[in-house]
């Protein structure tokens, strides 16, 4: 039976793969990757660079991401249809290009805001792809953010809330006390900060374009929003992540 390796490749730095991930890359028949088109091509190139650093001869088969209606009448039905089509195309590529094993490279860690495991489950259930799955953890963008800012994710005994920019607006004041925000297409930090909201922000973490900023939202919020727009225009895409924390004292 085929083995599908779901390999967390870290969030941008080829040196942050685990030994287990490297060994899996050196063992599999092929990597299958989704090509999400234009703006995300840089990301695909980064993935290829990471594979090449550790397994120079490993073939990478790319499957074009099927088109998706961004303004459907029935959002859920459209997402279901899109996921089903993705699963069909990927299962087809796996059958064509691998006999024993195939790898999916997951940005960061497969457990955090990623649909690869869901797609594989769908391929097994609905596309009849017989396979066993091995998941290899990776370093997440959250860990890169804290490492690059040399800081702790939580204060003593305090909870950590991880959310998306879309859900930040609904977060309770308690959750916002110490809150990691991902998947922000805009500048979610500008919504509802207090005078004491401090932000540690990072974009393109682990890559040559890495940018870091930190400060009270009331001091740096607007500047970082402008910077984000400039960076997106310059590179054609951006990935950023931030920790918001309510500070009682003056020092972060
Ligand atoms: C679809 S989620 C994937 C998260 C990934 N599985 C992980 O473990 O980090 C993508 C989001 O992760 C964050 N992210 C991932 N890589 C990043 C990087 N190198 N720099 C900044 N943020 C990053 C951004 O918030 C981005 O919108």
TrEMBL record:
<dbReference type="GO" id="GO:0043819">
    <property type="term" value="F:precorrin-6A synthase (deacetylating) activity"/>
</dbReference>
<keyword id="KW-0949">S-adenosyl-L-methionine</keyword>
<dbReference type="InterPro" id="IPR014776">
    <property type="entry name" value="4pyrrole_Mease_sub2"/>
</dbReference>
<keyword id="KW-0808">Transferase</keyword>
<dbReference type="GO" id="GO:0030788">
    <property type="term" value="F:precorrin-2 C20-methyltransferase activity"/>
</dbReference>
<dbReference type="InterPro" id="IPR000878">
    <property type="entry name" value="4pyrrol_Mease"/>
</dbReference>
<keyword id="KW-0169">Cobalamin biosynthesis</keyword>
<keyword id="KW-0489">Methyltransferase</keyword>
<protein>
    <submittedName>
        <fullName>Precorrin-2 C(20)-methyltransferase</fullName>
        <ecNumber>2.1.1.130</ecNumber>
    </submittedName>
</protein>
<dbReference type="Pfam" id="PF00590">
    <property type="entry name" value="TP_methylase"/>
</dbReference>
<dbReference type="InterPro" id="IPR012797">
    <property type="entry name" value="CobF"/>
</dbReference>
<feature type="domain" description="Tetrapyrrole methylase">
    <location>
        <begin position="3"/>
        <end position="210"/>
    </location>
</feature>
<dbReference type="InterPro" id="IPR035996">
    <property type="entry name" value="4pyrrol_Methylase_sf"/>
</dbReference>
<dbReference type="GO" id="GO:0032259">
    <property type="term" value="P:methylation"/>
</dbReference>
<dbReference type="InterPro" id="IPR014777">
    <property type="entry name" value="4pyrrole_Mease_sub1"/>
</dbReference>
<dbReference type="GO" id="GO:0009236">
    <property type="term" value="P:cobalamin biosynthetic process"/>
</dbReference>
<comment type="pathway">
    <text>Cofactor biosynthesis; adenosylcobalamin biosynthesis.</text>
</comment>
């Amino acid at each position: 039976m085929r083995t599908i390796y779901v390999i967390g490749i870290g969030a941008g730095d080829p040196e942050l793969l685990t030994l287990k991930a490297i060994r899996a890359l050196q063992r599999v028949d092929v990597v299958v990757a989704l090509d999400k088109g234009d703006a995300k091509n840089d990301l695909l190139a980064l993935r290829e660079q990471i594979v090449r650093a550790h397994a120079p001869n490993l073939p990478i088969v790319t499957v074009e991401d099927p088109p998706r209606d961004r303004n459907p009448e029935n959002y859920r039905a459209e997402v279901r249809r899109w996921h089903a089509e993705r699963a069909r195309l990927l299962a087809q590529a796996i059958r064509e290009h691998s006999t024993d094993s195939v790898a999916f490279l997951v940005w960061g860690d497969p457990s955090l805001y990623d649909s690869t495991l869901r797609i594989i489950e769908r391929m097994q259930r609905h596309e009849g792809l017989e396979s066993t799955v091995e998941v290899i953890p990776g370093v997440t963008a959250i860990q890169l953010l804290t490492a690059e800012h040399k800081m702790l994710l939580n204060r003593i005994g305090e909870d950590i809330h991880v959310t998306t920019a879309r859900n930040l607006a609904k977060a309770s004041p308690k959750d916002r006390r110490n809150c990691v925000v991902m998947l922000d297409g805009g500048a979610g930090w500008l919504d509802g900060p207090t005078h004491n909201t401090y932000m540690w922000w990072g974009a393109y973490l682990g890559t040559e374009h890495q940018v870091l900023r930190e400060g009270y939202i009331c001091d740096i919020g607007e500047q970082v929003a402008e910077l984000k727009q400039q960076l997106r225009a310059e590179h054609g895409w951006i990935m950023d992540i931030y920790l918001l924390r309510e500070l009682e004292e003056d020092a972060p």
